[in-house]
Amino acid sequence: MRRPAAGRFPRAWPSASALAAAALASGACGIAASPDARWTAACPRDASRDGSGRCACAAGDYPLLGACVPAGVGDAFCGPAAVMGRDGCAFRSCGSDEVVDVASGSCVAWAALGRHGAAPCAVGSAPVVESGRIACVAPDATCPRGTRRDGATCARGPVCPPGALPDEGGCRPVIASDGAGGPARVDVGAWTALAVGVDGGPGRPELCAPLTQQPASFGLEPRESATLNIRIALSIPDEDVSRVHASSVDADLAGAPLAPRGQALLARAVDTLVEALRSLGGVSSAGVAEVRVRCRLTP
Fold first, then answer.
1. How far is Cα 49 from Cα 43, in angstroms, rounded to an integer?
2. Which of 122, 128, 143, 248 is 20 to 30 Å from the Cα of 212, by its Cα?
3. CA 153, CA 16: separation in Å to the nearest integer?
4. HSE of 268 in the Cβ direction (CA atoms, 13 Å)?
5. Contacts with 188 (C-beta within 8 Å, 6 or more apart), sequence order
6. Structure letter (DSSP) for residue 137
7. d(Cα 51, Cα 65) in Å, to the nearest integer?
8. Cβ distance 27 to 35 under 8 Å?
9. How are beta strands 283-284 and 185-186 bridged, if at all?
């Protein structure tokens, strides 16, 4: 994760060791006081601690990447083929002789696919319906965003309370408070690494999943593979997280520029991630951030 010069950081931002201590103090992904006397893992906007001391979203909101969001924001994150529920994204229901189209969200009759319905996929890939045609994708891409293929089911990852994201088998707090009544501070670097990807490495599934579901949007044929190289620059005016936006989203496919359809799909994937970051509220640990990651399209 590229960070701005040290002078751009709030002077009172907790050290990495303080946040790590807060994570250890969280136990089974709860929010608890840090051994550091000044900093504790905090709840994001629209969340408060429940009777067990864990952060919980307000009624009607859903947990998403450490934040609490309304149904409309959750549905946008899930994409046209899925909806947000208390446990995360789930594909829309279709009839027994139908399948949901990942690009449009509509239910398509298998009989209407004609010869495209029989398009073979190579070993290690699986079919989805994209824009009325069969596309061959990685098995995980046959599941809703935020889940992965596990045999015949779509499995969900570890669950963390609002204010924290899964990290190496535990929950890492990304928002902290000094207990003095000041605004909570968001570790944008940690959030970006856990929700988007570490700079120079593979993109996180939360970013790549909607892209890998629609290879035809990038001009790929059923058995073609390619790597999408992505650069995302975030701007946080006045270090106010509620104002964060993607100031630049650039990408190429093996060195070639993206077609408009692919660029639009990437922009939506990034925008829905940034909306979750924005929903954390509080003050940012940095005014700008930039990350370069890659997503593998088709196996």
1. 7
2. 248
3. 37
4. 18
5. 234, 236, 241, 244, 277, 284, 285, 286, 289
6. E
7. 22
8. no
9. parallel
E strand map for 146-287: 147-150, 153-156, 164-167, 170-173, 175-177, 185-186, 226-235, 245-253, 256-257, 283-284
Mean pLDDT of 288-297: 96
Outline where 141-216 has alpha helix (H).
188-195, 205-212
Tens digits of per-residue pLDDT, 184-200? 999 999 999 999 999 99
Smallest CA-to-CA distance from 63 within 148, 156, 1, 132 is with 156
Q: Does residue 176 carry a pLDDT above 70?
A: yes
**CB count, 10 Å around CB of 81?**
27
**Rg (alpha carbons) of the chain, rounded to whole number:** 20
3-state secondary structure of 112: helix
Nearest to 63 by CA among 5, 130, 146, 168: 146
Name the β-bridge partners of 109.
Answer: 98
Domain boundaries, the chain: 12-297
Answer for the pair 284, 241: CB distance below 8 angstroms, yes or no: yes
